[in-house]
Amino acid sequence: MKILVCITNVPDTTAKISFTEGDTKFNKAGVQYIIGPYDDYALARAVELKEQLGGSITVINVGEADGEPQIRKALAIGADDAVRVNCDPQDSYFTAAQIAAVAKEGSYDLILMGRESIDFNSGVVHGLVGEMLGMPSFSPVMKLDIDGNTAKFAREIEGGKEYLEAQLPLVLGCQEPIAEWKIPNMRGIMTARTKPLKVVEPVAVDEMATLAQYTLPAPKGACKMIPAEEAETLIALLKTEAKVL
Amino acid sequence: MILIFTELDNGSIKKTSLEAIAYGAKVAEMKGTSAVALAIGNADASELAKAGQYGATKVLHAGASELATENAMAYASVLAAAVQQEGADVVILPKSGLGDAMSARAAAKLNGSVVSGVTELPDLSDGFKVKRSIYTGKAFATVEVKGAIKILGIKKNAIEAVAGSGSAEVVAFAPALGAGDFIAKVVSQEKASGELSLTEADIVVSGGRGMKGPENWQPLLDLASALGAATGCSKPVSDLDWRPHHEHIGQTGIKVAPNLYVACGISGAIQHLAGVNSSKVIVAINKDPEAPFFKAADYGIVGDVFDVLPRLTKAVLDSK
Ligand SMILES: Cc1cc2nc3c(=O)[nH]c(=O)nc-3n(C[C@H](O)[C@H](O)[C@H](O)COP(=O)(O)OP(=O)(O)OC[C@H]3O[C@@H](n4cnc5c(N)ncnc54)[C@H](O)[C@@H]3O)c2cc1C
Ligand SMILES: Nc1ncnc2c1ncn2[C@@H]1O[C@H](COP(=O)(O)O)[C@@H](O)[C@H]1O
Q1: How large is the ipTM?
Q2: Pocket around ligand 2: residues whose beta carbon is below 6 Å from it?
């Protein structure tokens, strides 16, 4: 079983978001970075599948050098080797084309991703990569087992779940509870230092979209407090003042 | 030409899709062209013709039996075929799991741009720029869209859908489909029936660990039913199996954008807020006056949910 896991290097979920250079650059100062939480689920399930079935795990990140601590963390959690495509991706099509170019070299049985990145929240890179490689893609996958050449998996649908079966190779966007997030142990951290991390330059792609400007949401007004003894007045306010009932 | 994918739910056009049609019609007006809707799956022509009230002039209906159940890959092929037949250069989809998957596969097929999470009408004064949500609602980015075919996923509430008097002709659409799109076998489906969809709902009532246990959910369900609201929960609540996983809202769960979000016994952790920050009006009910949710809310009640919820339900019912 050869698995490719695609990880993003993203601000921690509690990070305060701000911009610099006239709101054209993300302000990295003081921001803690993590592996995207959904990507972390994908990685965790990949590690379990490898324990069960053997094989190898490659992680890929399309991003700049400051993402390498997160790539090393993925290696410490259990990936065997890593590829970083050296660039600052701004567009899903571009990112997907980079992943597809690397994936073509490796003939992977499974390409696991997160259901969405938490910086762009697009939920499209899996579909793009799938189509670029001529592979089926499914998301969000919340359960995954491999039986020979068949993947048996569950996908969250509106109001419930759908159980599916399909032949490998596949591209899957993952979410909980597919596996529990894994924390690297000491041995993992030691061996990760010497595992191969290959840096490649991006392939050329037609420019599809570029980021022009960032903005922050308007600050929230003060919260109107209603005494608990007068809770009923809330309903009147929602009708007459907020006009949402 | 603008093509709009309209999502169906049991034969009716979803509310978020009516918004997508209104959005597409507006873009068509800005560009001096027409808007065509595409519906896939089972639906009556009379329901589909409703797209006309929101500005579409024609509805392509792909009603083949193998398309009756949702299948993102096959639907993407139908979408790409419709883009080619109609010569569309802008494609609008509602942002949803299905919409995202279709737009991705269609963009790769058509070699087009794809931008998901669009929150406003485009700015056409200098190129084609759209504003989209990023960092899970914590910021926006203005994106210059450069592909010859531009595929946009529209977030709920990006535009108000108001029914007008327009009409649309419904035309059957039957593109050839490849076996590759039907590669997965659907073994079974578990679906709560008759439940309001969280992502479509205009009102969401949501509970956290402050509800103390699954046996205590009735007062929350009563308020939700009085308001005609969908119900949601925080992550620990679904992790503990107090509520089903598909109700989990937040950074790692569903993102909702209702007109009214009522948080009951939820602390307001930043990861939970990430899933609700697109709501128009937020109400927080918490016994702790320092709960972070009050900083993100428009209305707050410091009190015990088990006292406050029944009184709110009664007030709603009394006011009807
Ligand atoms: C990477 C990551 C992703 C995450 N993703 C999500 C996510 O998607 N969604 C999510 O929700 N969380 C998420 N979390 C967890 C999040 O950080 C919080 O732990 C969680 O939201 C807390 O849930 P809660 O408010 O229900 O529980 P608690 O934090 O335990 O809060 C319970 C609240 O109820 C109040 N309360 C207690 N009793 C009563 C009463 N009788 N009446 C009124 N109020 C009462 C308390 O004052 C308290 O404020 C994530 C965390 C991480 C690290
Ligand atoms: N820059 C990137 N490098 C590696 N994988 C990525 C990158 N961007 C997105 N992905 C993968 O694609 C998934 C969906 O991302 P998105 O379409 O941006 O929501 C993520 O969860 C990752 O697994």
Answers
A1: 0.94
A2: A 6-8, 36, 38-39, 60-63, 89, 92, 95, 113-114, 116-117, 120-126
